[in-house]
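Hey,
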Amino acid sequence: MNAELIHSRSAGSTGIRDISGTCTSAPGLNRTQLVVMAAACGLGIANLYYCQPLLGQIQRSLHTTMAAAGSLAVYTQIGFAVSVFFLAPLGDILERRRLILIMLALVTVSLAVAAFASNITVLGLASMAIGFTSVISTLVLPFAVSLAGEQQRGETVGAIVGAMLVGILLSRTLSGAVGELFGWRCVYGTAAMLMVVLAACLRFMLPKNQPPASMGYGSLIRSMIGFIKTEPVLRESTLNGMLLYGALSAFWATLVFLVASPAYRYGPAAAGMFGLVAAGGAIIAPRVGKLADRISPHVTVAVATGAMVFAYLLLWLFGTHLLGLIAGVLLLDMAAQSATISNQTMVTGLNAHAQSRLYTVYRAAYSAGGSIGAYLGVMGWSLAGWTGVCAVGTGMVVVALLLHIAARRNEARRAVAIELEGSLAAVEL
């Protein structure tokens, strides 16, 4: 951890203070900049999901197997996972605006290569490059938080996370519609043009940003391990995020099986439409962020985790009925998003000189939790159908809630011990 910073450890506080005890100031983030940065994160994360509804078209167009076409989605996610760990921390040692523009240029080239790919090998390499260069959101969010300052941190995180959720949920729907009308190559071409427009907007609307830290790349990567060891809030928020996103992924990975079952007999398009229902939860993101700014984000995490337990019980009991499923989807995504915003607000508030690295740790674990949850959800379906899925999801959320309660009790004990130690020291004097 940087020696020049000390942290406020009072309950519910994630304030950053310099060595004199004064809160560090931020240059400010106006509303237009926030909208553009949120759009950048939404469009950037959407690049990872455009291919999923197009796999059948790609398979037929390039005369390949469905297994080979299906691997494109895997390549994209692998590329993104690698970039999150190895590229996102660079935001702490390089000028952020320039780094973001470079990544936008590279993802534009990758999308263009995909649009003109003549065979599945070229498209596979382009897909991995798209994932690797779509690290925009993990660069932009810490940048926005550093500009916003402590009083607007939660609101800023809420707006950006909401935009990312919309990008994830609507990318598949829009990609499928454009692909059906104009073909899969048009989807990649349109995405490339959007990146060019986005780069132009960010170039003129974002300020230059001096690197908050000065160190070599090896030290940068090693320091992330040090933060995991020394920052209990980082460990707690990361574990909570892993478990809750895993529970959410267990649902979305198996929803297509449920809607195709005798309970509904819907097609894959109907499963995609539930993304529109979940996207409605994005409207609460800025409100949750503001709430996290006013009260302890620990409280909003606890409420959101409890709401996810209730959502899964609702899905377990009434998920085979359309109204029950719609209500469960909306509550589940709203609660998961609320917890994510609160966790990220705490993580990015720990150290002004290491926001990119702190967010990298959280985001890498968050993505890993999603993969684990999706796998367990599919296993639960194969063993016990919808009951198995709900058992997996409910179990992950209950564990997250119990760990959160235990962490708060430990924090209370530490606070009492520190207060008692201070009192004893005063008596001795």
